[in-house]
Q: What sequence folds into this?
């Protein structure tokens, strides 16, 4: 509802809170329904509501969420709308990165690229977990696609790869609100469980395919 | 007393140079280097549950025994690595360690102040400051209510993790309200700033009790703020 890059669809003036692609209790017991009720129902909802209030009547109204993020990032000198806009996007993306019965290893192209760019899936997993564990304070860890390679990145607070002009494929939220009810201070436990039981490699693979197509289209343009 | 200050403040090098035997430690140089722990978790002067209902005992226990302890553990580790790098003249490692020292050392500094900023209601928690600090607050902010309102607004607006502070600018001789990100101590906002009251607004400080409603945590924490301690610091630093 909130973004469109095709010319014909009209972008609505207000962003909406997108539900996760599964019921709030679907990730139990590793990510509790209670966590989803607060994380999606309160935190994510508040970012959406506050963003809508902030852009109402301004020239950001009617722009896609991605455009609002980039405009608000303002090359690092962020405008007040940045935090809310980026966090809306980040959380939409985060829910999509998980699924009930997730985890395991990716297949096909994604697996080969991980193998190629990190040496092995185990190496990738270790590095991703380390990035998530060492992001100090609030933030996110990412698998990104840049110059036809896979890389790992970390970002503070609301920052995301869109502002670096790279393509995010996977993220984990390491703000304390993401894990505190279920894991308290034990962020490494949360990260392990995320990798072992929550990651939707299908979602990551399809984002990779999209990224490769866009990349090819840009090159041929 | 002298021994304790040596262990906690001097570099390990000076301990080794004076010789473990002369200090009566009976340890080899290598052992004394590895077994020295520079900083330890300070005790609270109240029980974990004593700040209820403003801050739950569950939060106090986790905050003190897990979060603060982890900062100390990692701070000590970083300092030991720093010592090694300095001995080897490994400048790039010395520089690389600065962020771990700032995060974890800052976490230790800030939380050590925080525990003293809090006290049970029956020990005077929430009682408004009298004397020179009370007067200074009225002068600079108009009233204690105005100060609290300002700190709560800035604390609520802080994006991500950090602290909101009431500080004394020793040079300008005035009170300030400041925020710092992550575990940056107040002094990172100005070298002449002295912390009087710090409020932790990292989510771990309130989440189990207040969830996403940080403003409710901020409203309630004033009931257990130890203004006596803040006044003592103010009087000492403004003399």
A:
């Amino acid at each position: 509802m909130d973004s469109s890059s095709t010319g014909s669809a009209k972008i609505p003036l207000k962003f909406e809170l997108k539900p996760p692609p599964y019921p709030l209790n679907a990730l139990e017991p590793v990510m509790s329904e209670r966590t989803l009720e607060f994380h999606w129902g309160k935190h994510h909802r508040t970012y959406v509501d506050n963003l809508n209030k902030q852009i109402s009547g301004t020239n950001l109204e009617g722009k896609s969420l991605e455009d609002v993020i980039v405009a608000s990032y303002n090359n690092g000198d962020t405008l007040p709308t940045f935090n809310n806009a980026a966090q809306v996007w980040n959380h939409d993306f985060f829910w999509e990165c998980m699924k009930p019965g997730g985890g395991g290893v990716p297949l096909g192209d994604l697996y080969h690229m991980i193998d190629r760019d990190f040496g092995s899936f185990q190496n990738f997993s270790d590095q991703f977990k380390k990035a998530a564990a060492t992001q100090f304070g609030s933030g996110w860890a990412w698998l990104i696609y840049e110059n036809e390679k896979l890389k790992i990145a970390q970002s503070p607070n609301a920052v995301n790869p869109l502002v670096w002009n790279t393509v995010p494929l996977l993220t984990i939220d390491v703000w304390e609100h993401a894990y505190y009810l279920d894991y308290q201070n034990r962020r490494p436990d949360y990260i392990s469980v995320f990798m072992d039981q929550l990651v939707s490699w299908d979602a990551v693979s399809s984002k990779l395919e999209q990224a490769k197509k866009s990349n090819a289209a840009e090159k041929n343009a | 007393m002298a021994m304790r200050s040596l262990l906690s403040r001097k570099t390990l090098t000076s301990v080794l140079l004076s010789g473990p035997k002369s200090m009566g430690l009976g340890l080899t140089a290598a052992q004394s280097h590895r077994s020295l722990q520079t900083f330890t978790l300070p005790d609270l002067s109240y029980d974990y549950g004593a700040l209820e209902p403003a801050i739950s005992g569950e939060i106090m226990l986790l905050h003190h025994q897990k979060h603060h302890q982890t900062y100390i553990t990692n701070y000590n580790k970083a300092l030991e690595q720093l010592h090694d790098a300095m001995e080897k003249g490994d400048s790039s490692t010395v520089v690389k360690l600065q962020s771990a020292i700032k995060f974890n050392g800052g976490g230790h500094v800030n939380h050590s102040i925080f525990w003293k900023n809090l006290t049970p209601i029956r020990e005077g928690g929430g009682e408004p400051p009298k004397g020179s600090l009370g007067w200074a607050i009225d002068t600079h902010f108009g009233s204690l209510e105005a100060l609290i309102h300002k700190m709560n607004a800035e604390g609520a607006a802080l994006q991500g993790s950090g602290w909101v502070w009431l500080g004394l600018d020793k040079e300008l001789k005035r009170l300030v309200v400041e925020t710092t990100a992550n575990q940056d101590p107040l002094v990172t906002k100005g070298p002449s700033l002295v912390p009087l009251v710090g409020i932790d607004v990292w989510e771990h400080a309130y989440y189990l009790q207040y969830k996403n409603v940080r403003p409710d945590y901020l409203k309630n924490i004033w009931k257990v703020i130890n203004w006596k301690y803040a006044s003592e610091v103010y009087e000492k630093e403004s003399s």
